[in-house]
Amino acid sequence: MSDITNASAPAPAFPGGTILGYPRIGRMRELKRALESFWKGASTEADLESVAKEVRLANLERLAALGLGRADSSIPSNFSFYDHMLDASVAFGVVPTRFKDYELEHGGFDLSGYSVIARGEGDKAPLEMTKWFDSNYHYLVPEIGPESTFELASLRWVDEFVEAKEAGFVTRPVIPGPLTFLYLSKPSDDAPTGFEPIERLDDLLATYDDLLAELAAAGAEWVQIDEPILVADIAADRSEVLANAAKAYANLVGLEKRPALFVAAPYHSLGDALPVLKDAGVDAIGIDLVRGSVPADVDLTGATIVAGVVDGHNIWRTDLDEALRKADAVAALGATVTVSSSTSLFHVPHTLQGEEHLGEELLSWLAFADEKVAEIVTLAAAREQGEHAVAGALGEARAALKARAEHPGTNRADVRDALAEVDPGWFERGPYSARAAAQANRFHLPELATTTIGSFPQTPEIRKARAAWAKGELSDADYEQAMKDEIASVVRLQEDLGLDVLVHGEAERNDMVQYFAELLDGFDVTKNGWVQSYGSRCTRPSILWGDVARSAPMTVRWAEYAQSLSDKPVKGMLTGPVTILAWSFVRDDQPLGDTANQVGLALRQEIADLEAAGIGIIQVDEPALRELLPLKKSEQSAYLDWSVNSFRLATSGAKDDTQVHTHLCYSEFGEIIDAIDGLNADVTSIEAARSRMEVLPAIRSHGYERQIGPGVWDIHSPRVPSTQEVTELLQLAKDSIPGKQLWVNPDCGLKTRGYAETTETLTHMLEATRAVRGV
Ligand code: GLN
Ligand code: ZN
């Protein structure tokens, strides 16, 4: 086989089974630790490079051991030190000019410079971070202007291919696609209004040409170009997107020196972009058959389709029979079919090995990355050799699926009966005017009432106490006392500062979802099930496998204790149903809305108990409401209906004089403003400091009549804003929202902050509030 394919030579055969990507942080989060040590100055760039290389090579060996081919491009090379979109900004030479000083003499960035672009330094703001499609992964937003110069400025993708080749693997480099890259970019600061990054498509394509030539010269037979943007409904006109796709891929297909092109479109259906890619002549097309589908009438004759039949975004064991049926259905449309994961596996943990505490039963229902690779190898064998060749594996999968469906915990009569009793009245509270009057009477809060979002700094002492307790080195009673002491000190601090509505500080919570998952029925938690959230940050989603029920109060004793220490109201603090779902691995055997209502009902009971314990203000956080918004417009209103309903089910039992708060972690309300109104909370706190209250005029013109707390402190950085700065933000807020509807609070919880900046900033916040109140 020749090293280099070109437009006229046929592409090498695509392997029978593959995955779109593999976790890149390391089985024991080696890369996380190496990055953090490098950032602290405790290790060198060479140390970091060597850990990264070990992670990459270990992944290759692992994937080969699981049955992917060493030499047939079935193993993807999808490593990144921090983020794949950042890698693309660096590789295409379009790093914003504010980072010029960090550029190396011969161009490009070393890992220190790369880290500055990711994390900022001094007055250099990092690239903005935002959610990747409808996942909980965050990418760094490229900044593109009319003046940006595109050039191939890094050969890391080529180097990593060569490194693998030297270790005996012919891998498939994975590169963000040109459309995805540009449509997810934002205009650079100096771009004129109206400029769109996609206007630079031709220039970017020239850089892809160079990159593909380099990869071909290095011996890459296939390259994977990820174009998830093609499945999403975005602001840009669809016909423009399709025209750009046609143009981009005609260009890349026509190159003389290039590897075969595999264009992957995870996260949903390609829809009308599928024929566009096929007609452009790309060598293989990846489609997501877990979230999406192909129309039954599309003609795929002659196409190679990489059928994403194994869920890359969730952890359930695959229904292999159904997966084979889906692959066959695509083959029946005329395509040559490869089986694959629906998305990159970097959304799921490495392996179930080491999770034996979950018990044999639950374990047998699950598949993390490694187990999914094994499933794909099984599916490929079934297609190539016939099902009899893998009869054992197919039988095991069938048995596990059956056991899961029949398990009493996945279908509890008590939970089902309780939900069946819910009637429409359970979603409604009394009119806001009556609630507002009752609450004013009860709390006598001043205009511009001050509060915080919930958590106070999670100090090393708190973490140490929790770790010791988990290991059995600290008794329950001693742990309880340590947390109470922490709560007492947080309450005292807030009283000294003069806040109006206090919080208990959430010291007892390892994580705002896992804390509840550990107390509710229907969940389990892993030991090492980490997935990358951004950069070196990982989260450990809980597993929501069964019917959800509350067997005992979850937060009441902490809230009650905190309230006993102060005459001021202390907020009860809960995580909302949508966020609990979004940040867990959720069962896929019933509609999400049903699961959300089960959680909603459990929270409703908790709220009743908090009220009975004398807690008058209760906050139910929904920071993930925006994140789960479907990529397809046609699915959004159904989503917003069930998500808003589950929140209302949780909160509408509250009495009129109980003040319900909610908190949302973003400021882009745009398409969900009706839904936020629909939550019907008495007070909603949002992020607003960085965007300088930009969203408030829209909220005002929407006719929002309840109370709102636009954040005045960007808690994502340790920077302390001055009293003057906070005063200006508050005045800006008052320009849009009447003072009696306004609250004063930070953007989000303070758990990642230290006490020094927390105390100082809250002092400034209160000084600013007094200034704006005019007292
Ligand atoms: N109450 C939570 C906290 O303060 C909210 C966190 C969040 O919105 N992500 O930590
Ligand atoms: Zn938040």
From TrEMBL:
<comment type="similarity">
    <text>Belongs to the vitamin-B12 independent methionine synthase family.</text>
</comment>
<keyword id="KW-0808">Transferase</keyword>
<protein>
    <recommendedName>
        <fullName>5-methyltetrahydropteroyltriglutamate--homocysteine S-methyltransferase</fullName>
        <ecNumber>2.1.1.14</ecNumber>
    </recommendedName>
</protein>
<comment type="pathway">
    <text>Amino-acid biosynthesis; L-methionine biosynthesis via de novo pathway; L-methionine from L-homocysteine (MetE route): step 1/1.</text>
</comment>
<dbReference type="InterPro" id="IPR038071">
    <property type="entry name" value="UROD/MetE-like_sf"/>
</dbReference>
<dbReference type="InterPro" id="IPR013215">
    <property type="entry name" value="Cbl-indep_Met_Synth_N"/>
</dbReference>
<keyword id="KW-0862">Zinc</keyword>
<dbReference type="Pfam" id="PF08267">
    <property type="entry name" value="Meth_synt_1"/>
</dbReference>
<dbReference type="Pfam" id="PF01717">
    <property type="entry name" value="Meth_synt_2"/>
</dbReference>
<keyword id="KW-0486">Methionine biosynthesis</keyword>
<dbReference type="GO" id="GO:0003871">
    <property type="term" value="F:5-methyltetrahydropteroyltriglutamate-homocysteine S-methyltransferase activity"/>
</dbReference>
<dbReference type="InterPro" id="IPR002629">
    <property type="entry name" value="Met_Synth_C/arc"/>
</dbReference>
<feature type="domain" description="Cobalamin-independent methionine synthase MetE C-terminal/archaeal">
    <location>
        <begin position="448"/>
        <end position="770"/>
    </location>
</feature>
<dbReference type="InterPro" id="IPR006276">
    <property type="entry name" value="Cobalamin-indep_Met_synthase"/>
</dbReference>
<dbReference type="GO" id="GO:0032259">
    <property type="term" value="P:methylation"/>
</dbReference>
<comment type="function">
    <text>Catalyzes the transfer of a methyl group from 5-methyltetrahydrofolate to homocysteine resulting in methionine formation.</text>
</comment>
<keyword id="KW-0028">Amino-acid biosynthesis</keyword>
<feature type="domain" description="Cobalamin-independent methionine synthase MetE N-terminal">
    <location>
        <begin position="18"/>
        <end position="331"/>
    </location>
</feature>
<keyword id="KW-0677">Repeat</keyword>
<keyword id="KW-0489">Methyltransferase</keyword>
<keyword id="KW-0479">Metal-binding</keyword>
